[in-house]
Amino acid sequence: MALLLAFGCARTGSEQAKGGIPADAGSIGSKAPDFVLTDLSGKQVRLSDFKGKVVILDFWATWCGPCRMEIPHFVRLQSKYRAQGLSIVGLSLDDDGARSVRPFAEEHDINYTMLLANKEIANLYGGVVGIPTTFVLDRQGRIVKKFIGVMPPEAFEEAIRPLLGA
Predict the structure, then answer these.
(1) What count of other Cβ atoms lies within 10 Å of the Cβ of residue 127?
(2) Are residues 54 and 87 in contact, defined by beta-carbon separation less than 8 angstroms?
(3) Residue 144, SS3 per DSSP
(4) Which residues does residue 126 pair with via DSSP β-bridges, in sequence order?
(5) Which of 9, 60, 133, 153 sits 20 to 30 Å CA-CA off 16?
(6) DSSP code of residue 33
(7) Mean pLDDT in the chain?
(8) What pTM was estimated for this model as a whole?
(9) Domain positions in the chain
(10) Cα separation of 130 and 133, whole Å?
């Protein structure tokens, strides 16, 4: 149990990164790959829609206990820093998509963008081999931090404050 909490939920081998992924995909300093995904209302959302914002991209799933532990922290961060330009984007890797995610988001009063992702999007970010995996992007869309596994809320706040000028 301690390992699960420290490292998060493992992904299966078939979901890990495959060939054809750029060598710097998901690496610190690289431009975050753009994507188009569907939100819980069926609207198409692009990462580029968040241009000029500090973005926390969180790969997660409703069935992942460590992922669920971080959700209240993200809700608080979004409330606290939205006005300074923070946008949190949850990238759900749930196989049944909105069927699981929508009721979870409502139950937990999620106040940030929730998108339905897939292994192809995870592969764009270097192959997400465990969740939660969370990327922090600066206002220019560059990856400045990558966190694998559950993290204390202070870790995210320390990462975003300098980017927000807070």
Answers:
(1) 17
(2) yes
(3) strand
(4) none
(5) 153
(6) P
(7) 87
(8) 0.85
(9) 29-164
(10) 7
Q: What is the pLDDT of residues 125-139, one digit of tens each?
A: 988 889 999 999 999
pLDDT (mean) for 46-69: 96
Cα–Cα distance, 110 to 31 (Å, whole number):
27
Helix residue spans in the chain (DSSP H): 2-7, 65-81, 98-107, 119-124, 153-164
Token duo for residue 152: 């204390």
Residues in contact with 77: Cβ distance below 8 Å, sequence separation at least 6, in sequence order: 56, 86, 88, 153, 156, 157, 160
Quick one: 139 exposed, middle or buried, by C-beta within 10 A (0-12, 13-18, 19+)? middle
Select the CATH number that applies to the domain covering 29-164 from these four: 3.40.720.10, 3.40.50.300, 3.90.1300.10, 3.40.30.10.
3.40.30.10
What is the CA 71 to chain-centroid distance, rounded? 11
Does position 17 have pLDDT exceeding 80, yes or no? no
Name the amino acid, one letter, at 92. Answer: S
CA distance 157 to 70: 13
pLDDT digits (tens, 9 = 90+) for 91-117: 999 999 999 999 999 999 999 999 999
